[in-house]
Amino acid sequence: MELKINGQWQEFPDGSTVSEVLDAVGATRQGVAVAVNGEVVRRGDWAASVVPKGASIDVLTAVQGG
């Protein structure tokens, strides 16, 4: 299935979870927030949250600076 990850379409197996998608794109788990179709997914739900086909996923990383 195709998913839009941070604005770019990528191919993933049907039934992929948020956790599996993060692993596939090499996203770190520290300081990361994930939204699927504009809805934030709690970190504790990543392993059980199946991503629907055609979903838009935003992976946001917290940064420090000034």
Automatic annotation (TrEMBL):
Native species of this protein? Amycolatopsis ultiminotia
- Name it: Sulfur carrier protein ThiS
Which gene is this protein's source? Answer: thiS
Quote the Pfam families the UniProt record gives.
Answer: ThiS
